[in-house]
Amino acid sequence: TTAVFAALGDACDEVREAALSVARAAVSGDAAEGRADALASSLAAAVDALASSPPHAQRRDDLARGGLVALYLHCASALIPEGDAAREPALKRALAALGSLGDEGCFVAARHLAPLVRGAEAETRLVLAKLRRDAVDGDLRPDLRRAAAAGAAGLMKGLKDADACVAAASEIAAIVRAKPNGKDARDGQTRAGALTLYAHLCVTAGRQFEPHAVYAAGDVMCALGDQSADARHAADVATRAVVKALPFTAMKLLAPA
Predict the structure, then answer these.
(1) How far apart are CA 131 and CA 133, in angstroms?
(2) Which of 81, 87, 102, 206 lies at a CB distance of 3.0 to 4.6 Å from 62, suitable for a disulfide?
């Protein structure tokens, strides 16, 4: 178990995926042997402990934490039937834990939110609307904005709503294009939040967001020269995310001739 958890924080994507697959198999085995309730309680307690701790600076630890949340989400979606009221607290627990993760830990965990959406689409849309507002709220702490962005991306992946993707891309572009107000640091934080949301949509929503990512990609790359240091950092993360997410043909459209 210790070796598998350590592998969840490995620098290699393939090793992390293999470790998560091993952990999922172990969960399935325990469930088949009638230990599902004990396992679910143990994972829930571990995720609750994460939610009350600050983000970890070390990449390996952040990735491992993200893997733990991903495993909990897998367990919850596998053991709790669609439409069951128990899915709502499981979703809230995972969303709270995202606040203890850095960007990379959130990238690992957030995509596993999608299966919990099934059977609760109407309620999910209400949660999504709040998360999208929080992600670009310049008054919130960066870790809370990042958690909201990651959560929104995971829920949008589950909803498979093209209109929501279009609206998000348009909002992000509008915020990033807005002229900064040098007297108010909140503007820079708002742009940083929009750029972080863009990065998480590229990574977590994946191909679902891909057709709409191009719309704001130019503005995101221009934000690398933003006056706000936080916005520049978020733009760097977002640029790396979109370059990795978009196919080469789309990148050629963005590149100068």
Answers:
(1) 5
(2) 102
Residue 257 pLDDT > 50: no
| Alpha helix ranges (H) inside the chain | 2-7, 13-32, 36-51, 59-79, 87-97, 103-110, 114-117, 121-135, 142-159, 162-177, 185-200, 210-222, 229-245, 248-254
Structure tokens given for 205? 């929503």
Q: What is the model's pLDDT at position 138?
A: 86
Is this model's pTM higher than 0.85 or not? yes
Q: What tokens does 135 get?
A: 């992600």
Closest CA to 199 of 217, 215, 211, 222: 217
Paired tokens of 15: 């090793």
Is 52 exposed, middle or buried, given 0-12, 13-18 or 19+ CB atoms closer than 10 A? exposed
Phi, psi angle pair for 118, to nearest 5°: -60, 130
DSSP output for 201-217: IIIIIGGGTHHHHHHHH
Mean residue pLDDT of the chain comes to 86
Give residue-wise pLDDT tens across range 68-105: 899 899 888 888 888 888 888 999 999 999 999 999 99
Q: Of the ranges 21-25, 43-47, 71-75, 204-208, which one carries the lowest mean pLDDT score?
A: 21-25
Distance CA 46, CA 60 (A): 18
